[in-house]
């Protein structure tokens, strides 16, 4: 199968990129491991940041400040300056943003923002954006390859030019390739490495990032993971920041408020973790807002608390904990969103590190990034002219051999589901909100042991078609690759900055005002710190 | 405390069997599926992504009614089956290609220019998550598999309100569309997002009439009691 532009991932970033490339006259295929719209974008409630002309500079300044010194002023400026056009584009596509009584767009404050610039569509902003983008893709006859699970990029060994990717077709059980002039990776973040301790949906395992690393590309700042302060204790389901924004309190099991609830997410998350580590439970208390107000302001939250904890927000305290929510690090890209170390390969959205969020993300900037940068990726990928024509490559044969080996030679003497759960737990407790040298080294040792044991793991289900046991297993392999970078980065960054907090180095140290950079040489992970440009 | 899951594998004989599993109490049905897969039977196949009712991937039939597995706590004796009127691919995984193709057939997209001022009118309709619960509940599907179905017609209605041009989609929903609905309201009852496709379809009928279309059932209705011989 051949196309001009191959987009991998069907969340907001992928669909925006696809629509832009199509508009510019390209043939586009969007490959997705599930069905289109089954992406984390649909879970974004807060809103979409767009700055008016007299607010652009403040928006830039707010974003730079939130990045704690490692955001790129150039990239941040690019994004903020595109924000209004991106909002207008969404409105033109029919995203029904909320209006006031006079029919004017309404916006709200988000934590860390100086001005009101977050536009929303009820409490379903991401969902309405994503569904509208999908409808627009159908209108524009964009081709979707559903149930296509990314395996590897097809790369020319010498020039490092990418000319497509290999996929495991979950429907047929066959390994397939899609060849293209350029590739856009939009596969989402890696909060799923904290299995059981993330607000994200299943499958946020950093597949795209792992494929770039295997292909000889570069990833960066993987240690920066934003933890959301209020996830339900048992299920890790997200309770929106709006609950605190509307006046909710955080109290411990002694009934005491222990933090200003409106501080940035990282500070609130640390305070919650401290309480829990000192054996006090933490609760979200919105009882004083009363039932009627809650059903108007937080309808989704009311429903989720009832289903997952069997509690009524209007009368009960809601037990919460902080869990992995958004990953700032990702595929290292240049100012054209082209992957460092590879050619013709672009990355956008949560899977990429465009140096916009730095060490911490400003609320409302993630939806903005996927749309504005998504369109930019679509445009840049369209303008990319391949330098070589790679006729022969060995990736397809290698990947077929790998799948064959998983079916026939991986022994399955170790249950990888148990390992996945264990890894999620030790990452969360030792490489989560609070980190220290000993804990990180311990997890890294355990993880490297799992990498060694990988061929003793495997699959019980030997069916060819719709083998989700196999997909879970490949996904776990990607998790091991990404978690290794996370741990190495966190271990070597001997300072605290934004979402990365080291108990043994609680201060910010500008020796580390730099990006952690990861790549592989002969299958071995390499890392260094690189100065900010 | 057990649930029964209807399993399906087209390469096995018999293709379909019912299996009983213990309920992991306090967990949602989707979490139960995950527990079964990771601790009892890794071959159990199901769909599910967001866990919080917004991605639309985990709908299944529970005792004959469509439910999002992530938003339902199972009870003893529950019978879990794949969605109706979809080709079953494996166990609880169904092929949504055909049902989603109706979105294109009906031109369920924005045509013409967007009218932002009408956003408040489509708050509910634009919450659709494409879970296919309504499609699976619709009795018309049993007799006409080409029926466009509730969620697609709701989307058409949404964009009709949001646009200054609606001819493209109103034309496209006259056949196997608004007039084929029996207005039974089953779709409205099962929608996890509180959408009312029945009402949207009734509104689309009015718009169709305003656009010069008429109810073909009414036109063709035979009042001569043809076929019945009362003598």
From TrEMBL, chain A:
Cofactor requirement: FAD
Domain FAD-dependent oxidoreductase 2 FAD-binding: 4-367
Catalytic residues in the record: 265 (proton acceptor)
Pfam families cross-referenced by the UniProt entry: FAD_binding_2 (PF00890), Succ_DH_flav_C (PF02910)
Gene3D superfamilies, per the entry: FAD/NAD(P)-binding domain, Fumarate reductase/succinate dehydrogenase flavoprotein-like, C-terminal domain, Succinate dehydrogenase/fumarate reductase flavoprotein, catalytic domain
Enzyme class, spelled out: oxidoreductase
Keywords: Flavoprotein, Oxidoreductase
Xref: SUPFAM superfamilies: FAD/NAD(P)-binding domain, Succinate dehydrogenase/fumarate reductase flavoprotein C-terminal domain, Succinate dehydrogenase/fumarate reductase flavoprotein, catalytic domain
An annotated GO BP: anaerobic respiration
Domain Fumarate reductase/succinate dehydrogenase flavoprotein-like C-terminal: 421-521
GO CC annotation, single: plasma membrane
A single MF term (Gene Ontology): succinate dehydrogenase (quinone) activity
InterPro entries: FAD-dep_OxRdtase_2_FAD-bd, FAD/NAD-bd_sf, Fum_R/Succ_DH_flav-like_C_sf, Fum_Rdtase/Succ_DH_flav-like_C, SdhA/FrdA/AprA, Succ_DH/fumarate_Rdtase_cat_sf
The protein, known as: Succinate dehydrogenase/fumarate reductase, flavoprotein subunit
Organism of derivation: Sulfurovum sp. enrichment culture clone C5
From TrEMBL, chain B:
Keywords for the protein's UniProt record, in alphabetical order: 2Fe-2S, 3Fe-4S, 4Fe-4S, Cell inner membrane, Cell membrane, Electron transport, Iron, Iron-sulfur, Membrane, Metal-binding, Oxidoreductase, Transport, Tricarboxylic acid cycle
UniProt-recorded Gene Ontology molecular function terms: 2 iron, 2 sulfur cluster binding; 3 iron, 4 sulfur cluster binding; 4 iron, 4 sulfur cluster binding; electron transfer activity; metal ion binding; succinate dehydrogenase (quinone) activity
Annotated 2Fe-2S ferredoxin-type domain residues: 1-86
NCBIfam families: dhsB
EC number in record: 1.3.5.1
The protein's name: Fumarate reductase iron-sulfur subunit
Pfam family, one: Fer2_3
Cofactor binding description: Binds 1 [3Fe-4S] cluster. Binds 1 [2Fe-2S] cluster.
Domain annotation 4Fe-4S ferredoxin-type: ranges: 120-148, 171-200
Subcellular location: Cell inner membrane
Family stated for the protein in its record: Belongs to the succinate dehydrogenase/fumarate reductase iron-sulfur protein family.
Cofactors demanded by this protein: [3Fe-4S] cluster; [2Fe-2S] cluster; [4Fe-4S] cluster
InterPro entries according to UniProt: 2Fe-2S_ferredoxin-like_sf, 2Fe-2S_ferredoxin-type, 2Fe2S_fd_BS, 4Fe4S_Fe-S-bd, 4Fe4S_Fe_S_CS, Beta-grasp_dom_sf, Helical_ferredxn, Succ_DH/fum_Rdtase_Fe-S
Protein topology in the membrane: Peripheral membrane protein
Catalytic activity reported: a menaquinone + succinate = a menaquinol + fumarate; a quinone + succinate = fumarate + a quinol
GO biological process, one term: tricarboxylic acid cycle
Domain of life: Bacteria
GO cellular component: plasma membrane
Organism annotation: Sulfurovum sp. enrichment culture clone C5
């Amino acid at each position: 199968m051949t196309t001009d532009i191959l987009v991998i991932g069907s969340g907001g970033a992928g669909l925006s990129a696809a629509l832009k490339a199509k508009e510019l006259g390209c043939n586009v295929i969007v490959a997705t491991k599930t069905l289109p719209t089954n992406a984390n974008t649909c879970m974004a409630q807060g809103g979409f940041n767009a700055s008016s002309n007299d607010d652009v500079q403040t928006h830039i300044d707010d974003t730079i400040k939130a990045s704690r010194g490692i955001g790129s002023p150039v990239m941040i400026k690019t994004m903020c300056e595109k924000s209004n056009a991106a909002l207008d584009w969404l409105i033109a596509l029919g995203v029904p943003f909320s209006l006031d009584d006079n029919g004017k767009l309404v916006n709200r404050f988000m934590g860390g923002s100086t001005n009101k610039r977050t536009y929303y569509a009820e409490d379903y902003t991401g969902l309405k954006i994503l569904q509208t983008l999908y409808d627009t893709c159908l209108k524009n006859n964009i081709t979707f390859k559903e149930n296509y699970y990314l395996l590897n990029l097809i790369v020319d060994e010498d020039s490092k030019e990418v000319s497509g990717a290999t996929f495991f077709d979950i429907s047929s059980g066959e390994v397939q390739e899609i060849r293209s002039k350029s590739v856009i990776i939009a596969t989402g973040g890696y909060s799923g490495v904290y299995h059981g301790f993330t607000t994200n949906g299943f499958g946020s395992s950093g597949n795209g990032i792992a494929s770039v690393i295997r292909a000889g590309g570069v990833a960066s700042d993987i240690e920066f993971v934003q933890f959301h302060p209020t996830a339900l204790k048992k299920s890790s389901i997200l309770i929106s920041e709006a609950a605190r924004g509307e006046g909710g309190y955080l109290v411990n099991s002694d009934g005491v408020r222990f933090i200003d609830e409106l501080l940035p997410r990282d500070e609130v998350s640390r305070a919650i973790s401290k309480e829990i580590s000192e054996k006090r439970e933490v609760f979200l208390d919105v009882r004083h807002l009363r039932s009627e107000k809650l059903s108007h302001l937080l309808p989704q939250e009311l429903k989720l608390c009832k289903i997952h904890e069997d509690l009524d927000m209007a009368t009960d305290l809601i037990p919460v904990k902080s869990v992995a929510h958004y990953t700032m690090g990702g595929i290292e890209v240049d100012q054209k969103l082209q992957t460092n170390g590879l050619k013709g390969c672009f990355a956008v959205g949560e899977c990429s590190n465009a140096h916009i969020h730095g060490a911490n993300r400003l609320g409302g900037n993630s939806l903005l990034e996927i749309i504005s940068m998504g369109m930019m990726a679509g445009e840049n990928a369209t303008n990319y002219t391949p330098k070589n024509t790679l006729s022969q490559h060995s990736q397809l044969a290698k990947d077929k051999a790998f799948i064959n080996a998983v079916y026939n030679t991986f022994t399955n003497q170790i249950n990888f589901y148990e390992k996945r759960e264990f890894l999620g737990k030790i990452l969360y407790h030792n490489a989560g909100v609070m980190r220290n040298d000993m804990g990180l080294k311990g997890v890294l040792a355990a993880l490297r042991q799992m990498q060694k044991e990988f061929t003793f793991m495997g699959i019980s289900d030997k069916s060819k078609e719709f083998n989700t046991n196999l997909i879970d297993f490949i996904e776990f392999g990607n998790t091991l690759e990404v978690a290794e970078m996370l741990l190495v980065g966190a271990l070597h960054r001997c300072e605290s900055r934004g979402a990365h907090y080291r108990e043994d180095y609680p201060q910010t140290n500008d020796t580390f005002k730099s990006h952690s950079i990861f790549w592989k040489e002969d299958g071995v992970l390499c890392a260094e710190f690189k100065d900010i440009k | 405390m057990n649930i029964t899951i209807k399993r399906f594998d087209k390469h096995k004989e018999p293709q379909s069997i019912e299996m009983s599993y213990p309920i992991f109490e306090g967990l949602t049905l989707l979490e139960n599926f995950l527990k079964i897969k990771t601790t009892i039977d890794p071959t159990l196949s199901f769909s599910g992504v967001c866990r919080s009712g917004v991605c639309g991937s985990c709908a299944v039939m529970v005792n004959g009614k469509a439910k999002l597995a992530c938003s339902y706590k199972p009870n003893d004796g529950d019978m879990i089956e794949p969605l109706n009127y979809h080709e079953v691919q494996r166990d609880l995984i169904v092929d949504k290609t055909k049902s989603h193709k109706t979105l294109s057939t009906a031109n369920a997209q924005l045509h013409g220019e967007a009218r932002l001022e009408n956003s408040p009118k489509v708050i509910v309709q634009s919450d659709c998550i494409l879970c296919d619960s309504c499609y699976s509940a619709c009795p018309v599907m049993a007799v006409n598999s080409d029926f466009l179905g509730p969620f697609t017609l709701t989307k058409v209605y949404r964009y009709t309100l949001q646009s200054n041009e609606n001819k493209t989609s109103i034309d496209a929903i006259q056949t196997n569309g608004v007039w084929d609905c029996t207005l039974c309201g089953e779709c409205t009852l099962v929608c996890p997002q509180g959408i009312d496709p029945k009402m949207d379809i009734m509104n689309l009928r009015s718009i169709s009439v305003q656009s010069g279309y008429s109810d073909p059932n009414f036109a063709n209705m035979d009042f001569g009691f043809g076929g019945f011989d009362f003598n």
